[in-house]
Specification:
The complex is a heterodimer of chains A (308) and B (104).
Chain A: H1 17-24, E1 31-33, E2 58-65, E3 68-75, H2 86-101, E4 110-115, H3 125-144, E5 148-153, E6 159-160, H4 162-168, E7 172-176, E8 181-182, H5 186-193, H6 203-210, H7 212-218, E9 223-225, H8 229-239, H9 248-265, H10 271-277, H11 291-295
Helix pairs in contact in A: 2-3, 3-4, 6-7
Chain B: E1 2-9, E2 20-24, E3 31-37, E4 43-50, H1 56-70, E5 75-81, H2 86-101
Helix pairs in contact in B: 1-2
Classes of the chains: A alpha/beta (308), B alpha+beta (104).
């Protein structure tokens, strides 16, 4: 009897950061930078009576994707919600700077960011916020150097807060049904604006607004990825090819697209209203159909935009 | 947070060549274990950092049973614990040892 369960690396949602990154890259090619045995950990958590993680919740390294040299960072969403702290953020910065500098074996074709984060770690918030800004700078420098920076999102923590802004700065974004992208988390919106504005306990609503299917149909992500690690691998291969130009034209196109979106859909209170307005068939079924049926649906006509 | 170290002796060295291995995640009800081949052939130890205070005796019992059953000579295990139950601790220690033995 053959066991097929893990032939595609398992389920992305359930996998650890290490399982994701090793399953994503060509087998046996992943070499970790600053591994857990070096114990480069948060110096701040003990003050809050919290135990740390030996890699501070992010796995970095170099490997190959379909034969191309790539760098990767994978966040562990189960450790402090994958949140950015000082060391965690510095590891991203170091990875991106090393990629742009082309140190060692030269510039990689791409940097893959396997995001799974609630945003900045509250216990080291200032350092975390600074890290987010530095990471954004580094992504821009990497893109200007011609490196594709690709965000892959499908973990439990999603890509919230600074993680969502980092996502928006990437050359390409891939997301699965479970993935979510949003600056403010559902609880934050509810706390500040009230349950009438946003009911964070209504999981279906949270996913209709922030979830992978909505982000893909709207153009907030370029590729919709099915749930297995093997699916993420297949999706990542074309995402690192031909990154869009990073120029003032791209930025202006993005601004136009965003203001058009507010103009046309600004009054909508929920995603199905947008689908109805955009003339998508069966707007209420978007969240219910299988992945394969979903992939046959048309996206919003402006969703294929290179601007990000 | 509570930290402590449990040292033991092993009848034989753990198999394998790997220098280190990591398993598990420091999350609620879970723990991460880093195993390293850094001790003498018949020494073994576990260093614990746990979020939950007051269970040291139980930890020592679980770890000593692991030493007696598995004989992980030469290995140091370092734990970051998020409040795992004893059965989860045993499982992760055995997983870490198994990872160190891979290929042997």
């Amino acid at each position: 009897m053959t066991d097929h369960r893990d032939s595609d690396g398992g389920d992305w949602l359930e996998a650890s950061a290490r399982e994701r990154v090793t399953g994503l890259l060509d087998p046996g090619t992943f070499v970790e930078f600053i591994g857990p045995e070096q114990r480069v950990m948060s110096p701040h958590l003990a003050r809050f009576d919290l135990t740390g993680a030996f890699d501070d919740g992010v796995v970095l390294g170099r490997g190959r994707l379909a034969g191309k040299d790539v760098f990767a960072a994978a966040q562990e969403g189960r450790f402090l919600g994958g949140a950015f702290g000082e060391v965690h953020g510095a590891k991203f910065v170091g990875l991106l700077r090393t990629a742009t500098a082309g140190a060692g074996k030269g510039r990689p074709a791409a940097v893959l960011l396997l995001l799974d984060t609630g945003g900045v770690r509250l216990q080291e918030a200032n350092a975390g916020e600074l890290a987010i800004s530095e990471i954004i700078n580094c992504i821009i420098e990497a893109r200007l150097a011609g490196i594709a920076v690709v965000a892959l999102i499908g973990g439990r923590a999603g890509a919230f807060g600074g993680g969502s802004i980092i996502t928006a700065c990437c050359s390409r974004v891939g997301i699965s049904e479970h993935g979510r992208i949003s600056v403010s988390g559902p609880e934050v919106i509810e706390t500040n604006k009230g349950v009438e504005e946003f009911d964070s306990m209504d999981r279906a609503l949270v996913w209709r607004v922030t979830g992978g299917r909505t982000r893909y149909l709207m153009g907030g992500a370029d590729t919709y990825i099915k749930s297995r690690i093997g699916d993420f691998r297949e999706a990542a291969i074309p995402l690192i090819e031909n990154p869009p130009p990073f120029s003032i034209d791209t930025l202006e196109a993005e601004h136009r697209r965003l203001s058009d979106r507010v103009r046309v859909y600004g009054e909508c209170r929920d995603a199905p209203e947008i689908w109805t307005k955009a003339g998508l068939p069966e707007p209420d079924r978007v969240t219910e159909v299988s992945d394969d049926a979903f992939l046959l649906l048309p996206r919003l006509k402006e969703a294929g935009h290179d601007a990000r | 947070m509570e930290t402590f170290r449990v040292q033991g002796t092993a009848l034989r060295p753990a198999r394998g060549e790997r220098r280190y291995a990591l398993t598990g995640v420091n999350a609620s009800g879970n723990l991460e274990v880093l195993a390293e081949r850094v001790l003498g052939h018949h020494e073994c130890e576990v260093e614990v950092a746990t979020a939950v205070i007051g269970f040291r005796e139980l930890w020592v019992a679980v770890i000593n049973e692991f030493f007696a059953r598995s004989s992980p000579g030469g290995l140091r295990f370092s734990i970051n614990d998020g409040g795992a139950r004893p059965d989860m601790v045993s499982l992760r220690l055995m997983q870490a040892l198994r990872l160190m033995e891979v290929g042997s």
